[in-house]
């Protein structure tokens, strides 16, 4: 199992160089309310030499498939062939409220989007007539999407997916999966769904990237680490309509349905801090990497055994300063090395 770092945009170049020196395979940059992925990755491409770069993820509602393909080709060229394109449909509230794009039929929309991106990266002119996308929009006499400099570029394409149906789609059409809100137990189920999708197209899991992302915090006291990450999870669990919140659905599938009902009851009263206290410690611990180096090494072994090929440590949820993020990268490298050399118990340090 390889290791990756999910960057923040502040001082991203130095963070990426630190990860490169520490032996990380990949740095990942997402996009949300603070920064986009492409701008940060363009800067990181110029400040690193060997480490892989991935968008984790570029949001499908935010850009047309043609622009996504053009951005991928550009970042791949700037990085000397190190780029991997991670895409995700986001969630209903971000799609509707932030980008003004209806969140209808997200699976068929994603399938068409990937079809167009793949076709554009082939370097051939693209004409496409689907339910969601029509290229050229002006009819067959209009100039088609054409990236003549793509030259058949083989850029790995990853999808972020949460539901079983989306995971199976990811296995069908993508080269890898970017996961969130993942425990070792749920990862086993995710790998099974991904494998089902691969079977549909006559492929197995060989070479397919399984890359869960986990908030990471190195602390001696696990309970203190859980407390520090509680606000991170409260933010995502409280996002939008509880019935449409994808993170709430995941927590319910992990066995925390009653706790989610209480969380949303309290959140509806306007007291998110109090609602956050209703999030079970066990839930936060199982979907994070929390503790001293040896305990996290043991947790890394759990994820490797469950099927992860790359484990992404997330820097932003720790809510530390730049020096703290650099230290987190160095300690994550230590834990990763330790996880590969001996059977470190995951309970150490509790």
Structure description:
With 350 residues, the chain is α/β, with parallel strands linked by helices. It has helices spanning 12-21, 37-47, 65-78, 92-97, 106-121, 164-173, 184-200, 222-237, 246-253, 257-268, 272-276, 281-286, 293-306, 322-341, and strands at 2-6, 26-29, 52-55, 58-59, 83-88, 128-129, 134-135, 157-160, 176-179, 209-218, 289-291, 310-314. The two termini are 24 Å apart. The model has no long low-confidence stretch (mean pLDDT 93).
Oligomer classification: single chain
**Main sheet: strands, sense, barrel:** 8 strands, parallel, barrel
Which structural class should the secondary elements be placed in? Answer: alpha/beta
CA-atom Rg in angstroms: 20 Å
Runs in which pLDDT lies below 50 for 5 or more consecutive residues are none
What shape does the CA trace take?
Answer: globular
Mean pLDDT: 93
- Estimated share of beta-strand residues: 5-15%
Number of helices: 14
SSE arrangement, N to C? EHEHEEHEHHEEEHEHEHHHHHEHEH
Sheet with most strands: strand arrangement: 1-2-3-5-8-9-10-12
What percent of residues adopt helix (DSSP H or I)? 40-55%
Map the helices and strands.
Blueprint: E1 2-6, H1 12-21, E2 26-29, H2 37-47, E3 52-55, E4 58-59, H3 65-78, E5 83-88, H4 92-97, H5 106-121, E6 128-129, E7 134-135, E8 157-160, H6 164-173, E9 176-179, H7 184-200, E10 209-218, H8 222-237, H9 246-253, H10 257-268, H11 272-276, H12 281-286, E11 289-291, H13 293-306, E12 310-314, H14 322-341
Parallel strand pairs: 1-2, 1-12, 2-3, 3-5, 4-5, 5-8, 8-9, 9-10, 10-11, 10-12
Antiparallel strand pairs: 6-7
């Amino acid at each position: 199992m390889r290791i990756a770092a999910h960057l923040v945009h502040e001082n991203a170049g130095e963070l990426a160089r630190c990860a490169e020196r520490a032996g990380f395979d990949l740095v990942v940059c997402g996009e949300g309310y603070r920064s986009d992925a492409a701008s940060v990755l363009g800067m990181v491409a110029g400040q690193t030499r060997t480490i892989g770069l991935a968008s984790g993820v570029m949001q499908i509602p935010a850009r047309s498939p043609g622009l996504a393909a053009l951005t991928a080709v550009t970042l791949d060229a700037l990085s000397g062939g190190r780029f991997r394109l991670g895409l995700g449909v986001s969630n209903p509230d971000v799609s509707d409220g932030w980008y003004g794009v209806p969140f209808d039929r997200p699976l068929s929309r994603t399938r068409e989007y990937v079809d167009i991106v793949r076709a554009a990266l082939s370097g051939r002119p693209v004409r496409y007539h689907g339910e969601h996308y029509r290229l050229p929009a002006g009819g067959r006499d209009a100039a088609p999407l054409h990236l003549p400099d793509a030259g058949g570029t083989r850029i790995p394409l990853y999808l972020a997916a949460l539901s079983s149906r989306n995971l199976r789609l990811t296995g069908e059409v993508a080269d890898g999966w970017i996961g969130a809100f993942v425990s070792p137990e749920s990862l086993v189920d995710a790998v099974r769904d991904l494998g089902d999708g691969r079977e549909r197209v006559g492929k197995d899991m060989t070479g397919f990237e399984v890359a869960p992302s986990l908030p990471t915090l190195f602390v001696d006291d696990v309970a203190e680490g859980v407390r520090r990450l509680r606000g991170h999870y409260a933010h995502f669990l409280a996002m939008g309509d509880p019935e449409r919140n994808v993170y709430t659905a995941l927590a319910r599938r992990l066995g925390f349905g009653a706790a989610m009902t209480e969380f949303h009851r309290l959140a509806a009263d306007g007291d998110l801090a109090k609602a956050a206290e209703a999030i079970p410690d066990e839930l936060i611990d199982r979907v994070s990497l929390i503790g001293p180096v040896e305990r996290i090494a043991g947790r890394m072994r759990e994820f490797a055994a469950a099927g992860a090929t790359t484990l992404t440590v997330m820097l932003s949820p720790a809510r530390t300063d730049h020096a703290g993020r650099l230290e987190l990268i160095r300690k994550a490298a230590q834990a990763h090395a330790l996880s590969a050399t001996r059977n470190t118990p995951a309970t150490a340090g509790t």
